[in-house]
Amino acid sequence: MSREQELRNEIDSYKDSLYAIVGFMNLYRYDDDAKKMKDDVILFQGRQLSPPKVEIEGQAFTGGSQQFVTPDIGILLPDESGVLGEVKASFPEDRLLWIRDFQQLMKYDQELTGWPNSSGRVKNHDVVLLLHYSRSVAVRKFYDEKKGSEINFTRPFCIVEFNRLPQAKEYFSLRIQMGTLSQKQLSDRLEEGVQIPMIVYVSEYSACKIYDCMPPMPYLLDLIWSHVVTLKASEDPKFPRLRKNQKLEVEIPVSEITEQLYKQFSFYPLHGDQAERQPKIPKQRWVKKACERLVTAGNASWIGENKERLKFGFVRLEDVLDYFVKLCAQDPKAETQGELFPESDTGLASDGADITVLR
User: What is the mean pLDDT of each run of 10 residues along the chain (359 residues)?
Assistant: First the structure.
């Protein structure tokens, strides 16, 4: 497989992870009887939840050395119950590494504070692992082997497989592979399998393009170029008359790029007035890394030594994503998003700018 195809597959996996997150959330949010969204179901993604404090030699610690856990999926229901979960589009070939993902999930299996309600708590919550159907049976067997020894859940735990079905009308499928959810009616539906028309994503969640895992580099570059740089360039009177290969210089701070992506493409619109525990996604260091790649390619240059502002040489590109896929295919594999465990896949706040480490 060529490096270009690997990058396109990584982009597809990232998108499928997003579809899994919003598709599963939507099962709780959508009222099938009334045919409309419920106003009293709160969804959140990557929210910082705090483990309980424990006493060690007379000193209080919060969740060991980590202050927060940051689940991919967060659902708060009107009866003050909830659901937390992680999505995994792929699992590494080495089964010895799988326990790490379950250890991550087990950190959600405790009383956490910081839920988006007045008390910051729920009376109970489920824990869910969403993963691609191609790995679901193997991961379920792994869970069965380790259950009671290395893997233990006290709360309802469920493995849900997902898959995109390329039919005449494209659907995204969700089905329970193991376990049951506390919401019995929904659990029964998922045992049979639920097919969600892709039009749901277009009509309700099309703005959600980034979650708290760094996107593949070409994907992030496409968002920056298509929705930030191009928009800025369009403010210039010369923009409508710009010919092919003709450059238009525009200056944009890294902070502005980050803010625009956060406001346009993260789960920000779903957080409403409960954003105090929601880290800004994308992280600014992700954006700066992408900007560095543009500088290396000659599409931009830094203004000043502090590297906080860039001058872009905007040109019209026929296929922006294709251009950046081909560009990033020239990079060593380790510099793109080909790692087994992308930095936010741990579900733990690990960026020193985002957490306070207690010692």
Answer: 95 95 95 90 94 56 64 96 94 89 95 94 98 94 96 98 86 96 96 92 90 96 98 96 93 98 91 77 97 97 95 96 97 54 43 29
Q: CA angle, corner 112, sides to 108 and 115, nearest 5?
A: 110
CA distance 114 to 275: 11
User: Is the domain of 160 the same as that of 224?
Assistant: no
Q: Is residue 358 part of a domain?
A: no
Total tally of structural domains belonging to the chain:
2
Angle at CA of residue 98, ends 3 and 69, nearest 5° = 100
Burial (CB count within 10 angstroms: exposed 0-12, middle 13-18, buried 19+), residue 143:
buried
- Does 260 fall in a domain? yes
Task: Tell me the two tokens of residue 48.
Answer: 């910082």
The reply to whether the predicted model has a pTM over 0.85 is yes
Residues 230 and 177 in one domain: no
